[in-house]
Design goal:
- Two copies of one chain form a homodimer.
- Chain A is an alpha+beta fold.
- The first copy, chain A, folds into two domains: 150 residues, Creatinase/prolidase N-terminal domain (Creatine Amidinohydrolase, Chain A, domain 1, 3-Layer(aba) Sandwich), CATH 3.40.350; 233 residues, Creatine Amidinohydrolase (Alpha-Beta Complex).
- Chain A is built from ten helices and 17 strands.
- In chain A, the strands form four sheets. The first copy, chain A, has a six-stranded mixed sheet, with helices on both faces. In chain A, strands 11-10-12-15-16 form a five-stranded antiparallel sheet.
- In chain A, helix 5 links the parallel strand 5 and strand 6.
- Chains A and B meet through helix 3, helix 5, helix 8 and strand 11 of A and helix 3, helix 5, helix 8 and strand 11 of B.
Chain lengths: 393, 393
């Protein structure tokens, strides 16, 4: 039932252990749902309760832990043997007297894992301050080390099968953004356009369907186009208003995001200029991408075009040009590893994947444009194939 | 632009301060997106980066902090004055050298808030172990106190307007569950049924649209009906298979969830029996709900019917009967306060709202049923009005 061959999971585990070894981590607690999926195949919408994997450097398989009612989900979706699926009873859930991390301590104690150096994902959404406090209380003599991006770093370079999943996600998002652009008309309710986008994201193509996306469709209309992360309302679209759409397709949890902008009516000259210049600058970055170049160098190419005198982007509202993407669960399709911005010296390698999104969210002018790309042997290719311009209706 | 009157937000802030006072907390750091929305109105799909409110006990308004590109979202959706909207620059985002909590420290220092007792939401998804570590590093002499459910406890009793929003969410979910049941047929792809559910959740009713829901539709088919939190695939539905649907409607972030079960074909006698007994036991609990009774007493009524000899539920796969609901963001529509289970002595009061979900996820028989309810002056009412039975097609 896992969506990759067992051999691929084993290779991922082995690469993870290499990193653990380098960083002096003997036991890894992986609580990021994307990392759980990556190493074990686990795919449940259950990350609102504490769950994770325990990977000991000298054991072949990680141990899954989670809530009792989710153990069957682990049996169905992972490649793990029965004894490595460990479920806590329901009285651990949102309890004022016990915490699921106390259950995790017991698993750690069982196999003599507590006198080891344990890596924990310190800055991962679902590893709360309380999780760490409970572990430290239960295991006062254990050394905990920050392993926040340890598995994420392994995830950066995709296998051919992962790329094929991201391309399927791209086929889905091409349809969804097309539907979004078609649906935006004066007099149509924003929620009805959003509903059509969702329909396209989930029904997918005739050959394969879509998964739930890590983030809701971003739909910024009129005044709201000055804000980066608002969603729709049940108000209607109006004539002479801009709408920015940022959405993703998702296939087996792999994402391909895209951002495009629609104007209903006659766009002001400034918006047309911003659109043209934004596309030009984005294309400078795309042209620069190839193995061997660093993230900050890619950004420099965009910066030269966009931020020079008379450029389209302003220093005062600067944000990073792009970030690595792939496997993801709510609330984020980003991998949190490399960013295209000054100071990021990550060297691009084939099959790294990024979302470049030099959108502009300003009070007098909002314009969104993006491309999700794969680094190829000698350059890059966009995952989706969709016209790169302002859509006027 | 906030969706409640300013007076309602002020009352919420005032009730929160009463609790802060009782618990000896002088400054509260509220990082749960639902708590940010509750106190300030903030509604952005931006919780994948650190953000929050700082509420000082002797100040009228909380201070919002978040990423630069989200400040306009705060200006648009909150009732806060300009000086209380504080944005960090983009180099704080997913950086290896600085953390947004260092920015928060600076705000705390500015107004002499650091020699106070600061409450933090220790076990809230978006307050990671690193967030606490950074604060403690920056403010070694400050006392931090756990304030995880402080605002959530205030949220438990809903205002009339909040109830009206939940009822709108219920109207939406009635349509969505109906669409789901109608869509499930042998030969139809699961993803296409899920897409129709999403469409109904977001387009809402002709009078008002739906928001994105805190959790993806749960759709458990065939063997997967033994797992509680899996979603759809692009496989087709088959004859003689059961499907459990658990979905919510969402209006202005207020949720009304529902769970129902569909069987395509002739259901086995065991499933029919389980359905009948499950509904009976759920109705015992519903009949018992009224102001003054405790959560554990409600559960006892269900338990007596469901877990006695020959009952429908098994001790080995026991889970809580229900939990409080309301305002929510991904990954959860639950409030994390009261649970209907042994030991929970929360006394029910009018306008508390719960989701009762005594579903059964077992290998030989999966059956889901639930009701979202409001405690009334002398009993309870279900938010949605939908037949309570196994649907056979």
């Amino acid at each position: 039932m896992p969506v990759f061959d067992i051999a691929e999971y084993k290779e991922r585990v082995s690469k993870t252990k290499e990193r653990m070894n380098r960083e002096g981590i003997e036991v890894l607690l992986a609580t990021d749902p994307a990392n759980m999926n990556y190493l074990a195949g686990y795919d449940g919408d259950s990350f609102y309760v504490p769950q994770g994997l325990i990977l000991k450097i000298d054991e072949e398989q990680p141990v899954w832990f989670g809530r009792g009612m989710d153990a069957n989900g682990a049996r169905i979706t992972t490649w793990l043997k029965e004894e490595n699926i460990r479920a806590y009873s329901d009285d651990y859930v949102q309890s004022s007297i016990k915490h699921p991390m106390n259950f995790v301590t017991n698993i750690l104690k069982e196999k003599g894992r507590t006198n080891k150096i344990i890596g924990v994902e310190m800055d991962q959404y679902y590893f709360t301050a309380r999780c760490l406090t409970e572990l430290k209380k239960d295991l006062p003599n254990t050394v905990f080390k920050d392993a926040t991006l340890l598995v994420n770093m392994v995830r950066q370079i995709k296998s051919e099968k992962e790329i094929s999943y991201m391309k399927r996600a791209a086929r889905i998002v091409e349809r969804a953004i097309q539907v979004g652009i078609e649906s935006i008309e004066a007099g149509v309710r924003q929620c009805d356009a959003a509903a059509k986008i969702y329909y396209a994201q989930i029904s997918g193509t005739p050959e394969y369907g879509g998964d739930y996306v890590a983030g809701a469709p971003i739909m910024l209309t009129g005044k709201r186009a000055s804000a980066a992360h608002l969603t729709w309302s049940d108000e209607k679209f109006h004539r002479n208003e801009v709408t920015i759409l940022e959405i993703a397709g998702c296939y087996h949890r792999y994402h391909s995001p895209i951002c495009r902008t629609v104007y209903v009516g006659n766009p002001p000259d400034k918006l047309k200029w911003v659109a043209e210049k934004s596309v030009e600058a984005l294309e400078k970055a795309l042209d620069a991408i190839k193995p061997g170049i660093t993230c900050e160098e890619v950004e420099k190419h965009w910066r030269k075009a966009a931020m020079a005198e008379g450029g389209v982007a302003r220093e005062s509202s600067y944000h990073r040009l792009g970030y690595s993407i792939g496997l993801g669960y709510p609330p984020d399709w980003g991998e949190h590893t490399a960013s295209m911005r000054p100071g990021d010296k990550t060297i691009l390698q084939p099959n790294m994947t990024f979302h470049l999104i030099p959108s502009i969210w300003e009070e007098d002018c909002g314009f969104g444009i993006s491309e999700a790309i794969r680094v190829t042997a000698d350059g890059c290719e966009t995952l989706a194939n969709f016209p790169r311009r302002l859509f006027v209706k």
